[in-house]
Each structure stands twice: as structure tokens, then as C-alpha cells.
TrEMBL record:
Keywords (A to Z) from UniProt: Carbohydrate metabolism, Cellulose degradation, Glycosidase, Hydrolase, Polysaccharide degradation
Organism classification: Bacteria, Bacillati, Actinomycetota, Actinomycetes, Micromonosporales
Pfam families: Glyco_hydro_1
Family statement: Belongs to the glycosyl hydrolase 1 family.
Record has Signal as a keyword: no
Enzyme class: hydrolase
Keyword field contains Glycosyltransferase: no
EC numbers: 3.2.1.21
Top-rank taxon: Bacteria
Catalytic reaction equation(s): Hydrolysis of terminal, non-reducing beta-D-glucosyl residues with release of beta-D-glucose
Protein's name in the database: Beta-glucosidase
Length: 449
């Protein structure tokens, strides 16, 4: 267990937790919600490790008041949730489901009543199935539908949401959902998935303009990053590491910050129209950084369809996901962002950071998760060190408040500060919850917001 006191964070530093709609809400058939690509994907045999779906998940749709009480007990200053597009617009466009908007209004008002800032993500991968049937993110029209949806949500909540996040991890949605086919919608296009990147970025840029027109709150995007650990010293290994860097860490961030697409990826950019790059580079107020782990990369075998090979990294402890625990990677990543983008880099918030362990209650019903405490302690110290290095980091959100439905892994991976007994829905704060509560209480005494 870590004992050394946590160093002091800057005044106003934001302490938060993150969740997403499909992973916690349940209520998939309630109050007029439409079908998303994840409903369809989860119902397809063989796609989800335990054959489960998010139909019920944590039943947060009905238990949100209890969950907000847990947030209040933790002492967080911000809560990042996502709005389910098909709950608000069942077919993605056109007819509005007012009950869906009402739910998010109840949620936001209850969060505010506890003195917590609501941070709303507009797209956390649950595309309305009707839009997928028209081509989804391969179809440019989806970007315009997203801007209309952003306008609708901001018209209702723009006076109360304290920060907007347009998209969650467009890289993971492109690569796992459309490149490899292990996430919804299950397309395996490899590098032909590039239009999915471009249309998501276009959607982001159009939504920035829509949000600005309706709300004075800051606008951000949450990107997934993974610092590259090159394995091997051959020129081919260097080239592979550079290719992976361009794909994972630059493909979305370069154009967002006005640098255009990384040319070395050699994508067919026929879908990029005049003016698109200006829309995409609309200034944002905060860059959201989701960080889990570094990636080992070396040159591919002859004949590989990819310009790199991913290799497991030795010498790190591992989570239940088999992901390496590497807080140094977060400090390196933040330093890399500052070095690469310089004054084009806006303030950064860590919009996700966390780990999965196989946490279960003991005979007394308590849930001990010492590994998560070590994880969070290390990553918070890494953020602090990055701030000392000169990177403007203004917040840290833990993934996640609750154990929840972990996409293709179903219920088999537990990321929560709070244990969820899925059959009953019972919530039990883990020891990491008490640890983080004490860290936040001390930090807020020292550096009030
Ligand atoms: C993120 N990877 O997903 C998502 O934003 C969350 O919804 C999710 O629960 C969390 O991280 C934990 O997985 C990722 O393979 C999924 O590198 C996969 C990867 C990274 C992030």
C-alpha cells in the first residue's frame, strides 16, 4: 500500500470519475430508447466473452440517484457520463424521444445538486442502428446527423453541462470497431477504415460549432493514447514504431490541432473534401486524454498486412486485462504531447485512467483492491510529475465509478471503484474508493476549486 503523501495539485484541479451510457444504464427497452449498434453486436452469437449484453448492465437508468450519492461520498468535483444517442433520437435523426432528454436532465440536475460538475460525452460508441444501416461512419452524412444531435442535446442542457466531450476514443472505435471487427459494428476493414476516422473528425468539428452556438461551456474530445515502446533497433523497427505512433497517437490529434493528417500512413484520402480540415481544426478548450498502457512495437513479419507488429512488454505488473501497469507511460505521453504540439496543445484533462482486477467480496462482504490503489497512486504521481515538467494538466477522471459492462469482455472485467453484484445490482465501495476519497479530501483542502 502506498504511504507517502500525495504531492499537492494545482488550485482548481478537477477530480472526477467517468462512465458511459451503454456500459451502465441498462433500460435498453425503456421509455422509447432506440436500438444502437452495440445492442445488435451483443446479440450476435460469439461476439461477447460471456454472451451478455448491456440490456440491464448496472441499471443506472433506475439507480442513478444512488450512484450520484456514491459520487458525492467520494468528494469528486466532476462526473463524466455519456448521452446515449438512440435514447434521445431513436433512429439517429428526426423524431426526438423527449423521455430520453428528460432522463439526462434529471441526471444533470441531481449531479449539480451535489456540487459536482456534469461533463457530457456525446458519443461513446453507441451509434443508432438506423444510421449504421445507412453506412454508419463510412457515410459522410453521419457527421451531419451528429451535429444535429449535438445541437439538440445542447439546446436542452447547454446551460448546465460544465464541459462537453464530442467523441470518446475515435481511434478505438475505428480500429476495434471497423478495422479489426472485435467491437461494434464488427467491420474488419483494416486500413480501409480510414473514412471512419475522417467522418468522426468531421462530426467532431461540426459539433464544436453547434455546441458553441448553444452553450458557453468548454468543448473537448477524449482521445485514447498509448506511448510507443520500440522493441528492437533495426531501421525496420524504427519505421514500425513511427508508423504505430502515427496511427494511434497522431491520426486524430494532428488534424485536430491544425497539423493535417500524418502523410506517412498513406491513407486513401479521397473522402477528404476542401474545407474539411478547417472544420476539424476548430479550436477546442481542453484535450481529453484516455490512458491505459504503453504499446510494444517492432517490425512486422514479411507479408504482414500491417506495417508494425505489437509485442507484449516485459517487466511490468499486469491487470486482469493483461495490460501492463506503467505510470511512467502517462508522464512520457504528456511530455510527448507538449513536445510535439507545443503551443497548439490546449490544457489537458485525463478523461480516463484505470484498471481491471478480479475484485470479489470477502466473507464479511468487503471488497479489497490493493492493486487498484497502487495503480491510481502511481498514475496520479505521474500526472503530478508531468505538471512539474510543464504540461498544463487540469483534471483526472478515474475509469470507472462502477464495475460495468466492458464491451467485448462483457461482465468479466471489473474497472470500478465500486463493486457491482450484477444479479442484485448491489453496490459495494471497494477499498480504493475509501483511499481515493481521502486523497481528494486532502487535495481539496489544500487547493480548493
Ligand atoms: C476505453 N485497447 O476503451 C473506453 O473508453 C471505455 O469505455 C472502456 O471501458 C475502457 O477504456 C476500458 O477498456 C478501450 O484495446 C478499449 O487499447 C480498448 C482499448 C483501449 C481503450
Amino acid at each position: 500500500m502506498p504511504h507517502a503523501p500525495m504531492p499537492r495539485f494545482p488550485t482548481g484541479f478537477r477530480w472526477g470519475v467517468s462512465t458511459s451510457a451503454y456500459q451502465i444504464e441498462g433500460a435498453a427497452h425503456t421509455d422509447g430508447r432506440g436500438v444502437s449498434i452495440w445492442d445488435t453486436f451483443a446479440r450476435t452469437p460469439g461476439r461477447i466473452a460471456d454472451g451478455s449484453s448491456g440490456d440491464v448492465a448496472c441499471d443506472h437508468y433506475h439507480r442513478y440517484a444512488e450512484d450520484i450519492a456514491l459520487m458525492a461520498g467520494l468528494g469528486i468535483t466532476a462526473y463524466r457520463f455519456s448521452v446515449s444517442w438512440p435514447r434521445v433520437l431513436p433512429t439517429g435523426a428526426g423524431t426526438v424521444n423527449t423521455s430520453g432528454l428528460d432522463f439526462y436532465e434529471r441526471l444533470v440536475d441531481a449531479v449539480l445538486a451535489h456540487g459536482i460538475d456534469p461533463v457530457a460525452t456525446l458519443f461513446h460508441w453507441d451509434l443508432p442502428q438506423s444510421l449504421e444501416d445507412d453506412g454508419g461512419w463510412l457515410n459522410r452524412d453521419t457527421a451531419y446527423r451528429f451535429a444535429e444531435y449535438a445541437d439538440l442535446v445542447a439546446a436542452r442542457l447547454g446551460d448546465r453541462v460544465k464541459m462537453w466531450i464530442t467523441l470518446n476514443e475515435p481511434f478505438i472505435h475505428m480500429s476495434l470497431g471497423h478495422g479489426m471487427g472485435v467491437h461494434a459494428p464488427g467491420r474488419a476493414l483494416l486500413f480501409d477504415a480510414f473514412p471512419v476516422a475522417h467522418h468522426q473528425l468531421l462530426a467532431h468539428g461540426l459539433a464544436v460549432a453547434a455546441l458553441r452556438a448553444r452553450s458557453g461551456s468548454p468543448v473537448a474530445i477524449a482521445n485514447n493514447y498509448s506511448p510507443v515502446r520500440r522493441v528492437g533497433d533495426d531501421p525496420a523497427d524504427l519505421a514500425a514504431a513511427a508508423a504505430y505512433e502515427a496511427l494511434h497517437n497522431r491520426l486524430f490529434t494532428d488534424p485536430l490541432l491544425g497539423h493535417g493528417y500524418p502523410a506517412e500512413l498513406g491513407f486513401d484520402d479521397a473522402v477528404v473534401r476542401d474545407g474539411d480540415l478547417d472544420v476539424i481544426a476548430a479550436p477546442i478548450d481542453v484535450l481529453g486524454v484516455n490512458y491505459y498502457n504503453p504499446t510494444g512495437v517492432r517490425a512486422p513479419e514479411e507479408g504482414s498486412p500491417l506495417p508494425f507488429e505489437l509485442v507484449p512488454l516485459d517487466g511490468y505488473p499486469r491487470t486482469a486485462f493483461d495490460w501492463p501497469v506503467a505510470p511512467d507511460g502517462l508522464r512520457d505521453l504528456l511530455g510527448w504531447l507538449r513536445h510535439r504540439y507545443g503551443t497548439d496543445l490546449p490544457p489537458v484533462q485525463i478523461t480516463e485512467s484505470g484498471c481491471a482486477y478480479d475484485d470479489q467480496p470477502d466473507a464479511q462482504g468487503r471488497v479489497h483492491d490493493p492493486d487498484r490503489i497502487v495503480y491510481l497512486d502511481g498514475h496520479l504521481r505521474a500526472v503530478h510529475a508531468a505538471i512539474a515538467d510543464g504540461v498544463d494538466v487540469t483534471g483526472y477522471f478515474v475509469w470507472s465509478l462502477l464495475d460495468n459492462w466492458e464491451w467485448a469482455e462483457g461482465f468479466t472485467k471489473r474497472f470500478g471503484l465500486v463493486h457491482v453484484d450484477y444479479p442484485t445490482g448491489r453496490r459495494t465501495p471497494k477499498s480504493s474508493y475509501a483511499w481515493l476519497r481521502d486523497v481528494i479530501a486532502t487535495a481539496r483542502r489544500e487547493t480548493p476549486r
